[in-house]
Amino acid sequence: MVKDFILHLFPRVVRRNDLRLGYTYCLGGMALTVLLVLLGSGFLLLFHYQPSPEHAYASILHLETRVPGGLFLRRLHHMSSYAYLVLLFLHSLRVVLTGAYRKPRELNWLIGCGLLFLSLFAGYTGYLLPMDQLAYWATETGMSLLREIPLVGPVLHAFLVPDAVGETFSLLRYYVLHILVIPVCIAILASLHFYRIRKDKGVLPYL
User: Is 18 among the domain residues?
Assistant: First the structure.
């Protein structure tokens, strides 16, 4: 899988026609680049964030006002998350409009849908972490809507919010999901996605 990923980035042969720029050129590659920026900036943010209801917001204020480059770092992470979701959406839209989800690429389409879902969930879990009023009430609204979904809604709500939104255990679960569980799942699915592109000869059919 690693070898196929490297060969996908550095193919042995590229046709001249495949180098022509278009409106949808390399949307997946740009999404991967922004994802790496997200991971890098998020890793640096870990050194200053405290995942507790009492200190979360204060740690964000400390980062923005006292840490050199802290405000830029947080804004970079914040804006990169929006750019990442936009690029994923446009990439998915291109796949739908060009029919690239058809056989033999059905499995890769499902993997891509999983990536999109996980990325949306990552953004949602990260939204609560600053613990300001906007983050609290947006998460409270989302959890209230989730609880109304028949059968699975109450179960998911109990898992994500074992005490109350913004309390110790719910904040900790959002934090662990955001920095560990979801990124690992995204990395696995992204590796499978690039592997299947190579396997299905989707982008470079002559390889």
Answer: no
Helix (H) / strand (E) containing 105: none
Q: What is the per-residue pLDDT across 103-154, written as a single tens digit (0 to 9) for each? A: 888 899 999 999 999 999 999 999 999 999 999 999 999 999 999 999 899 9
Rounded distance between C-alpha atoms, residue 28 and residue 137, angstroms: 33
Per-residue pLDDT of 8-32, as tens digits, reads 666 677 666 666 656 566 788 899 9
Tokens found for residue 139:
């998460």
Range of the domain at 186: 2-9+26-199
Tokens linked to 115: 């990536």
**Quick check: bond before 104 cis, omega within 30?**
yes
What is the number of domains present in the chain?
1
Q: Does residue 107 belong to any structural domain of this protein?
A: yes
> In Å, what is the CA distance from 97 to each residue of 85, 91, 100, 101?
18, 10, 8, 9
Q: What is the pLDDT of residue 99?
A: 84
